[in-house]
């Protein structure tokens, strides 16, 4: 009876087979499986697959960070436009920071800061520019 041709399988499939095969019951198949895994090209393939998974994981992290930054920018812009409409910039828990009626210069300065920050965060989150260096160092 011919044994299993392990050359047709990926390294991941071979590793799964290694975990599930009964070496005592199927010693010839187990020996062929181990010989296939020991081939240099299989080891290179396993390293390449591992690196591809790592890159995919980093891409997911980058995307999540960009989404978060864009959302923070959107919330900041919403806050700026709401404050402009109400004539009051409020802080945490609704505490009044500055009112248009009391301090127009401070109020408009605050609105400009909120809009600028919100646009910057939204742009950064959508394009990813400005995040790449920080993300690369944080992911590793």
Query: Based on CA inertia axes, which overall geometry fits?
Result: rod-shaped
Q: How does the helix and strand content classify structurally?
A: mainly alpha
Count of DSSP helices?
A: 5
What is the H/E string? HHHEEHH
Number of strands: 2
Rounded to an integer, what's the Rg over CA atoms? 29 Å
Ranges where pLDDT stays below 50 over 5 or more residues in a row are: none
Q: Share of helix among residues?
A: over 70%
Mean pLDDT: 87
Sheet with the most strands, sense and barrel status: 2 strands, antiparallel
DSSP strand (E) fraction?
Answer: 5-15%
Give the strand order of the largest sheet, numbering strands 1, 2, ... along the chain.
1-2
Taking the alpha carbons of the first and last residues, their distance comes to: 49 Å
